[in-house]
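Support reply, case 0932

Customer input (verbatim):
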Amino acid sequence: MVKIPAHVTIIMDGNGRWAKRKGLERLEGHKAGVESVKAAVEFAAENKIGYLSLFAFSEENWNRPQNEINGLMELMIDAIIREQKTLMDNAIRFRVIGDKSRLGETLNSKIDEIEGITASNNGLTLIIFLSYSGKWDILQAAERYSKLLKKGSIQDDVPLTHELMDSLLSTTGVPDPDLLIRTSGEQRISNYMLWQCAYTEFYFTDVLWPDFRKNDFRRALETYSERERRYGKTGDQINKIK
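Our regenerated output:
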């Protein structure tokens, strides 16, 4: 029996390599990756996964050539516009998490619009991480904590607990990922949700993101189902709880 995680997150890697192998420009790989996004969203919705989050653009990606960045931003705007009806028809709630101050006005406007339109949807929550890094997230949480102290909203003697930290992160209200999938054969998390992935199960596949389809997603869930999540406990302790 396949266990269904509450939250699956995917590092969508390999677009550039996919394009290079086919003698295409890198942006063509990103365009092809949009079909993989559709397949992943459909699979998550069909299998009653509560949250699907996708790492689309990291803080470090701003160092890429400007023409690739511009193309990616246009691609994201077009994808959001095209998928609005699909999101509504399937009761999918759409969110974007990251440093939005670095995104353009047009993209931010479309993000705000779709987030508002889908806010009351009660199906799958689809989260796109844009201009995001785990270190940025922790730093902005620390800044929020400092501001709360200065305002007197939090007393100096109140400790910074795990629960309080969770509430200060950009992912507040979103459960930590149960399963992280990374495509293209790379085996690292690349500064992604460093706090939130403390007990996440990792699944790495050699499949390049533009080739990732529902069967690949299913294999990841099957592997996840075979694992025993102990959270620091022994196997005997877990079995007693069961």
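We compared this against your earlier run and they match. Two observations from our side: Residues 38 and 213 are 9 Å apart (CA to CA). The first strand starts at residue 7 and ends at 11. Please reopen the case if you see a mismatch on your end.
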